[in-house]
């Protein structure tokens, strides 16, 4: 897997008057180097169309494109990988379907889940929610920076901190040891998406 | 595709105090010869578990097992096929993922959709809802028996009439030309599931 540091996720509720392709392109131009399609209220057919368009965009910028949850849609558009929650298809099933070369990321909320993902062959894990967040409908209690520190100490595969990370609290996350962060509303919901992405990218440069 | 005539679909809301495996097994014993897993409120992981169990059950009875909507779950459990609505993954994408040997069924509500499915290589189509139904959340207006007659006249691939079919109205459906019917609540929600299936199977024998 090509390494990444600034991972952005779609969220149509954050840019109701803009087209997702424009928003994500600006995020990439600002420095986002991995993109995930995550929309919980779309039909499969709508998701397929979005996935196809985003895959073409990401290919142009040579940025990996990841599909949340839907392994079938990832297959259909030849996405670079999938991101799976603890209630989604298990890692081993997704790996069987996608083969060894696709990226599989797993959301984790504690060290036990992180270790299981690592042992199961995940390419990266999500670590969070670090802070309270209103992005997901099924809100999980924040796990805090302590879980980030545990992962730094005990997990060897790449991890990305996620959940409520904003410009005003990102320093704490980086100080806890994160080298990759996942941002939703603070980038795609920003007034100037490119500048917002750029501001996070500059923060990340300080820890590379 | 092995032919079928009595297609049953799961629907946990119809047997809240019973286990789905027991209910579906009784339906098969009564004469159901195709089974579909359709649950709209389960996580992928719950669906995967159900799919695995139902596949094993159906294999024992040599009855094809079909997964609604989720092509990835169908792959994971090596189901015999998928059933796709008009908002699900399109036929051509599902075919690419599943290959030529898996069954793909498509829900249709008018002749245009039916023809598109036939031309696209569907193995069978669903034709309905024939009568009003409360099985699906996203309720489609009933298309009536007239659409069944149109399909009999214009479509050559197998079709299965679906939607609100009960013992008291099934004769009309068969008279309109259907030789395969899909039943949910009138079988899986019956007090005696096996007898209910058997009653429909006997009706179908009169048109074979
Ligand atoms: Ni659907």
From TrEMBL, chains A, B:
Cofactor(s) of this protein: Mg(2+)
| Residues the entry annotates as binding 2-[(2R,5Z)-2-carboxy-4-methylthiazol-5(2H)-ylidene]ethyl phosphate | 133-135, 164, 184-185
- Protein origin, superkingdom: Bacteria
Q: What Enzyme Commission number(s) apply to this enzyme?
A: 2.5.1.3
Task: Give the GO biological process terms.
Answer: thiamine biosynthetic process; thiamine diphosphate biosynthetic process
Q: What Pfam families does the annotation carry?
A: TMP-TENI
Q: Which reaction does it catalyse?
A: 2-(2-carboxy-4-methylthiazol-5-yl)ethyl phosphate + 4-amino-2-methyl-5-(diphosphooxymethyl)pyrimidine + 2 H(+) = thiamine phosphate + CO2 + diphosphate; 4-methyl-5-(2-phosphooxyethyl)-thiazole + 4-amino-2-methyl-5-(diphosphooxymethyl)pyrimidine + H(+) = thiamine phosphate + diphosphate; 2-[(2R,5Z)-2-carboxy-4-methylthiazol-5(2H)-ylidene]ethyl phosphate + 4-amino-2-methyl-5-(diphosphooxymethyl)pyrimidine + 2 H(+) = thiamine phosphate + CO2 + diphosphate
GO CC terms: cytoplasm
User: Residue ranges of the Thiamine phosphate synthase/TenI domain?
Assistant: 6-187
The record's cofactor note says:
Binds 1 Mg(2+) ion per subunit.
Q: Which annotated residues bind Mg(2+)?
A: 69, 88
Keywords noted in UniProt: Magnesium, Metal-binding, Thiamine biosynthesis, Transferase
Q: Where does 4-amino-2-methyl-5-(diphosphooxymethyl)pyrimidine bind?
A: 36-40, 68, 107, 136
Pathway(s) it belongs to: Cofactor biosynthesis; thiamine diphosphate biosynthesis; thiamine phosphate from 4-amino-2-methyl-5-diphosphomethylpyrimidine and 4-methyl-5-(2-phosphoethyl)-thiazole: step 1/1
SUPFAM superfamilies given for it? Thiamin phosphate synthase
The molecular function terms in GO held by this entry are:
magnesium ion binding; thiamine-phosphate diphosphorylase activity
What function does this protein fulfil? Condenses 4-methyl-5-(beta-hydroxyethyl)thiazole monophosphate (THZ-P) and 2-methyl-4-amino-5-hydroxymethyl pyrimidine pyrophosphate (HMP-PP) to form thiamine monophosphate (TMP).
* UniProt record similarity statement: Belongs to the thiamine-phosphate synthase family.
Protein name listed in UniProt:
Thiamine-phosphate synthase
> Which source organism?
Caldalkalibacillus thermarum (strain TA2.A1)
Tell me what gene encodes this.
Answer: thiE
